[in-house]
Structures are given as C-alpha cells and as structure tokens.
Amino acid sequence: MYDTIAAISTGPVTGAIGIVRLSGTAAVAAADRLFRADNGRALADAPARSMIGGALCDLSGRVLDRILAVVFRAPKSYTGENIVEFHCHGALPVLQEALRSLYDLGVRPARPGEFTKRAFLHGRMDLAQAEAVIDLITAQTADAARNAAGQIGGAISREIEAAYTLAADLCAQFRAEVDFPEEDVPPLSLPEAAVSLRAAAARLTALADTYARGRILREGVRCAIIGRPNVGKSSLLNALLGFDRAIVTDRPGTTRDTLEESVRLGGLWLRVSDTAGLRETRDETERLGVARARLAAQSAQLLFLVLDGSAPITDEDRAVMDQARGLPAIVVINKSDLPARIETDVLEAAFLHVCRVCAVNGDGLAQLDSLVRRLFESGAPPCDGGLLTNARHAEAVARAAAALVSAADALAGGITPDVVLTELEAGLDALGEVTGRCISEDIMHRVFERFCVGK
Ligand SMILES: Nc1nc2c(ncn2[C@@H]2O[C@H](COP(=O)(O)OP(=O)(O)OP(=O)(O)O)[C@@H](O)[C@H]2O)c(=O)[nH]1
Ligand SMILES: [Mg+2]
Known about the structure:
The chain is α/β, with parallel strands linked by helices. The protein has three domains: 106 residues, Gyrase A, domain 2; 143 residues, tRNA modification GTPase MnmE domain 2 (Four Helix Bundle (Hemerythrin (Met), subunit A), Up-down Bundle), CATH 1.20.120.430; 161 residues, 3-Layer(aba) Sandwich (Rossmann fold), CATH 3.40.50.300. Helices cover 46% and strands 17% of the residues. It is built from 16 helices and 13 strands. It has a seven-stranded mixed β-sheet with strand order 3-4-5-6-2-1-7. A six-stranded mixed β-sheet has the order 9-10-8-11-12-13, sandwiched between helices. Helix 4 runs antiparallel to helix 5, helix 6 runs antiparallel to helix 7 and helix 14 packs antiparallel against helix 15. Magnesium ion binds next to helix 9.
C-alpha cells in the first residue's frame, strides 16, 4: 500500500496548460474535495479516462481555475494506482495553490521519478522501460526520442526476455537433473543447448555493442573546433548556433578560454567547444588557453579543423594538422567568399573529409551537416529502440553474454552440471539487472533520482 502523492507534471513553468497529477489510493477522494464537475457528479462516479469539465477550488470553496479533470482507475493507469489529473490553465500560482490544498488533505509531494517508480513497482513497466522514460524526457534529438520511445515500447526488454527465458529453461532442466537424479527427467541434448546458448550470447553481444552509438544519442558528440588563430573558429561556432555567442575580431588570439555550446548538426546533438587558436606564444593567458584547446581536442570525438582558404597553408596550420591526424576530423576550409589560395590537394590527400564554408554568410554549412551525418550514421542501426543508451545496461548485457558463452563452453567440455548452472545463474542475474527482476534498493534509488519531479 502506498500513500498518495501529487506534483505539477508539466514542471515549474508557465504554459498554456499545466497538469497537476495525483496517484495513490486516496487520489480520487482528495481530488473530489477540490473539483466541482459541471455535471454535478463526483469524480468517484466518473467514467475512467474521460475529460470532465468543472471548477478547481481551494479548500474554502473559492474557485481557482476552470479546468478539465481525468480519472484513471487502478490498475489501468500509468502508475498502476488510481490517478487523477487536473488539466489547468498553466498559471503557476494556481497550480501551486492546488498542490497546497492537496497537501492540507494529507497528500504528499511526489519525489523525483516517483510516478514512474510506482509504475515499475506495480509491474506496469520493467526497469529498462522506466529508464527509457527519462531518456525520452531529456532527448536532445528526434533520433534520441525515437529510440527512447521504442524502448518504452519494450524493444530492449523483448531482447533481454528472449535470452532470459532460454537460460531459465535450461537452468530448470539442469536443476531437475542435479536435484532429482532418480526421477525420469527427459535428458537434455547438450550440443543443442550449447548452440542455442551461443546464439543467444551473440545477440546479447550485438546488443551491448549498440551502446557506442546509443551513448552518442544520449550524451551527444563532444566536438572541438581547432585551428591556428584568426582562421574563423569562433565565427564558425556563431554560424552553427545562429547567433553571436563568441567574440570575433580581426586580431589573432581573440579567443582565450574554451567555450562550450550545444548545436544540432547532421541529426546529432553536438557539444561544440570553440577554442583558442593553436600557436606558440609568450603571452601567459594565451598559453593557458592553448593548453585548454589541446585538452579539448584530445578528449573530442570529432574535430572541426578550421583553415583559412584565402591563404596558403602555414607552419602553424601544419602543426594543427599533425595534431588532428588519425582522429575523426572534418577539415573546414573557411572564408570561401574570398579568392582561394589554399592548397586543397594537400588537404584532400591527408584528410578524408574536407568541406568549404563561409562562416560569415553560411555558405557550405549544409555540406558540413551532411558530412557529420555520414560520419556518424554509416552502418548504424535505425533508432527504433534497439540502441542501448545506458552504461549500466551495456555492462550487464555484456556480462550476461560472457556468462552464457562460459555455460556453453562448460556444456561442450563435458563439465559437471553444477558448473553450467552457476554460469547460467550469473547470466540470469545480469539480465535481471537490466529489466529490474533482480535489482538492489540502492541501484533502484539511483535510477529514479535522475528523474524530474512529476514524472
Ligand atoms: N571574409 C571572411 N572573413 C571571415 C570569415 N570567417 C571569419 N572571418 C573573419 O576572420 C577574422 C577572425 O575570425 P574569428 O572567428 O575571430 O577567428 P578565430 O579562429 O576564432 O580566431 P582566434 O580566436 O584569434 O583564434 C574576423 O575578422 C572574421 O570576421 C569568412 O568566412 N569570410
Ligand atoms: Mg576565436
């Protein structure tokens, strides 16, 4: 039995609509103290999942807002409990006043993620699906949202369950043979079992490998703009953002500190750092900036190496090119509005991805967009929910795959059933960590504390 909780599910912002949500045994009774339906009927008698017009009042009966109320009855609700939603006009003071009245009635403020935690605890979704809810809420790109939506629909859970069922069935068979050797348990075909285990392990390994791309979906791509001073790095950042974020001057050495901004490019979420121009310098502040620029370049997953297309390649350019060699880099030849004097053939020989842009008028940015898209999308599976986006899941799935391979090896090597059982059980535990079948209080707490209040 859980107490009744409430929160502003649309968040502490003013919008056209604001939703106060209550969940728990007393949700409908508490809501009925504040809501006067236009049809005169109590919410306790209202049909489920219908919008009912009426007035939202405080406990003294003063009207706060004209709203729509919806009742969802247990167990057919998001949390699996009785839920009432008040769809109000989005004025925060009204929403807060409604909450205060509910608290006076003994309803408790919901903690971050508590609605979704209850959904998990009541079996409305497994842990992988619950975690996808937070991915969906915080998605930065359409692909990230699509992947999360697929996971809420059970894409990951189905993969995990298939392996879980196979391992659990084999476990049951082996247990029967170990525990009741005198019973007539039909013998297991060991080679067949080993083959199915290896096939399941291969699928799990492929799933774990999707994390490389899934991580990019969730965390974005760390990208550094590097180049010698004055080639137009800050101008490129501003052009990508669509507004003047970084200071631009015609004096080399303008940018000192690194500056990070998020941009959407090539369907991806890029966390772009504009950096100080790379050169040898005696100026102490600039030297610190150059050191930071090098650090940003080293930790980046993608480099935009900017060159000035209106000048021949300099020694400073060459030093930057040396630093970028072997890293995922796109050479951006800037200032395409000026007469070209750069040796393009040298660049094309040294780097796979080269494009010409003008950071001042935006020419060539579309080509940069498609280069980024191509660089990160080649061979990637579609974002339909099949990508793991969570390090904890990826680690557990890889561990499960390793355990199933060990079990298959033990079977093939004619090792005693108890060893096979130990491996199979380790695999089951690892899979259970993803779906939440076997999960410690501590991990569960950590998962849900990442949520916002009201979800
Ligand atoms: N004609 C032309 N000028 C540009 C273009 N992009 C940048 N510039 C000019 O080049 C100069 C340097 O631009 P910045 O963006 O400050 O260059 P930066 O690489 O950030 O320079 P540092 O911060 O000093 O390393 C400025 O005068 C810009 O207006 C371009 O595409 N065409
Ligand atoms: Mg700059």
